Each structure stands twice: as structure tokens, then as C-alpha cells.
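Quick one, C-alpha cells below. Sequence please?
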């Protein structure tokens, strides 16, 4: 069984910083792309950032220059460093990862974390 567990959300003031973590565990052979998404109340889930297995990154325009995605392949963990936070960054943040299971190396499946709340107060 593979699962993603997020941590690091919380309440922060305007202009503050937070670091989110997402650890993948279980019978994992390899992890391809990893990413972060967010969903604000009444809105659709949107892409925040992605990172490939080789470290190439992609960001939503709304977070460029403020957020940094990274990963530690040895720990099967990805991170999202968030700085200069704004009230519009308030949302539930979800991590995901494209994982090849050790028991079935022919398929890549996308797994999601349970979500962590980030609230930015003004």
C-alpha cells in the first residue's frame, strides 16, 4: 500500500512563511513527477507547482518567485517552501506523486495526500 502524508500547514500572517512536506511511503519502486495543488473554498483545485524526478520545476504564475518546490529522492519526500504569503493563498494544499509500485513496475499510478490547511490572515 502506498500513501502520501502531508504536514506543515497552519495559520500564518500576511507576508509570513510556511514549509509543507509530503512523504511517500509503502512499497515504492520509483517516483516520477511530484506536485502540489490547492483548493480554496468554492473553487476548483488548481496546480501550484510540479517537479520532475530530475528536478525540473514548474510553477503557477500566481506563486512564481514566492514558492519553491523541492524533493529529496532518498526520502521519497517533496517540499513546498512558501514565502510572502497572501490571503489569496489560503486553501487546502494537496500533494501528489506519480509512483511505480515495487509489486507492479509496468504501471504508474497517481497518489494524493489527504490535504493540509493553509490560512493566511490579513
Amino acid at each position: 500500500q502506498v500513501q502520501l502524508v502531508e504536514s506543515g500547514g497552519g495559520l500564518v500572517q500576511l507576508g509570513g512563511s510556511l514549509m509543507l512536506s509530503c512523504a511517500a511511503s509503502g512499497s515504492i519502486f520509483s517516483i516520477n513527477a511530484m506536485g502540489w495543488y490547492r483548493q480554496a473554498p468554492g473553487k476548483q483545485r488548481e496546480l501550484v507547482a510540479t517537479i520532475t524526478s530530475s528536478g525540473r520545476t514548474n510553477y503557477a504564475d500566481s506563486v512564481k518567485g514566492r514558492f519553491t518546490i523541492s524533493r529529496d529522492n532518498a526520502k521519497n519526500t517533496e517540499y513546498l517552501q512558501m514565502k510572502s504569503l497572501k490571503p489569496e493563498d489560503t486553501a487546502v494544499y494537496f500533494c501528489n506523486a506519480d509512483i511505480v509500485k515495487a509489486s507492479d513496475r509496468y504501471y504508474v499510478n497517481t497518489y494524493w495526500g489527504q490535504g493540509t490547511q493553509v490560512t493566511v490572515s490579513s
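The mean pLDDT is 97. The longest strand covers residues 28-39.
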